[in-house]
Amino acid sequence: MPVGRLRQDGDKPFGDDLPKQVALVGGQLRLSVNAFAIDDGHEVILIDTGAANAWHPTMGRLPQALDEAGIDARRIRIVCFTHTHLDHIQGLVLADGRDAFPRLARLLVPREELDLFRTEARLKRFHDMAEPFEAGDRLGTHVDIIGAHGHEVGHSCFRASSGGECILIWGDTVHVPSLQFDRPEVTWEFDTDQDQARESRLRLLALAADDHCFVAGAHLDSPGIGRVARSGGGFRFEPL
Ligand SMILES: [Zn+2]
Question: Which helix (H) or strand (E) holds 46?
């Protein structure tokens, strides 16, 4: 991604004032794309599905990642989206056009984004199946849904709790880990409502740090999971 996607207050890109800690690869930002599976030993819930072949040629490796994790795609009967941007939803369909999850029974989409989801022609066969959820809803006994609107109108975070521990699967709360933990006020060009996105990021970072929750981010660098600690005026990410 071009560095210009990062935005300061007032939707202003950085120029010569680009903070030194921003990690660049060939002058650009590297954006990892992750999806997360919650396996309670009984059922597997998949949160987001990646981009399949609908975006960048280096994406679409979810089937291989599931293999590596020892999860049979036929065990995935529930898929939830943190929001409906293409790098989160297109993985429902494999590059060859087949369904990625042949036994899919429930497809949960933020209520505010149902219409957005139903504009995706490549996913037409899933339009009717999409089932709305909203902040405060629960999924089984271990997962509750926290509103994190701003990046997109229904952007949501899934909190899984078990044995006194928790993990926030927080979608696009952070796009550029080298900067946005330390300076969470910095936003992203594709945040639909930048002020609301900033507010949600601050709230989730505080929640993760104060409740000692792990976080799992769609755009955090591999392994995409870690802890958050308060640091100076901002936060610090401690990867697993
Ligand atoms: Zn994204």
Answer: strand 44-47
Task: Name the region of 10 (left: φ>0; alpha: ψ -120 to 50; beta: rest).
Answer: left
Token reading at 174? 């952070």
Question: Where are the alpha helices (H) located in the chain, listed in sequence order?
Answer: 62-68, 86-89, 114-117, 177-180, 194-210
Q: Which helix (H) or strand (E) holds 79?
A: strand 76-80
pLDDT tens across 60-96, in order? 999 999 999 999 999 999 999 999 999 999 999 999 9
Using DSSP bridges, classify how beta strands 12-13 and 214-216 pair: parallel, antiparallel or unpaired.
Answer: unpaired
Which residues are within 5 Å of ligand 1 (an ion), measured at CB? Answer: 85, 87, 172
* CA 156 to ligand 1 centroid distance, Å: 12
Find out whether 37 and 29 touch, Cβ atoms under 8 Å: no
- CA–CA distance from 137 to each of 101, 110, 127, 140 (Å)? 24, 11, 21, 10
- d(CA 126, CA 144) in angstroms, rounded, equals 24
Please give the distance, rounded to the nearest whole angstrom, from the Cα atom of residue 87 to the centre of ligand 1: 6
**What does the block give as tokens for 40?**
């309670």
Distance 173 CA to ligand 1 centre (A): 9
Residue 222 C-alpha to ligand 1 middle, in angstroms? Answer: 15
Q: Is the pTM of this model over 0.90?
A: yes
Q: What is the pLDDT of residues 31-45, one digit of tens each?
A: 999 999 999 888 999
Determine the 3-state secondary structure of 152 from DSSP: coil
| Beta carbons within 10 angstroms of residue 1's beta carbon | 15
Per-residue model confidence (pLDDT) at position 74? 97
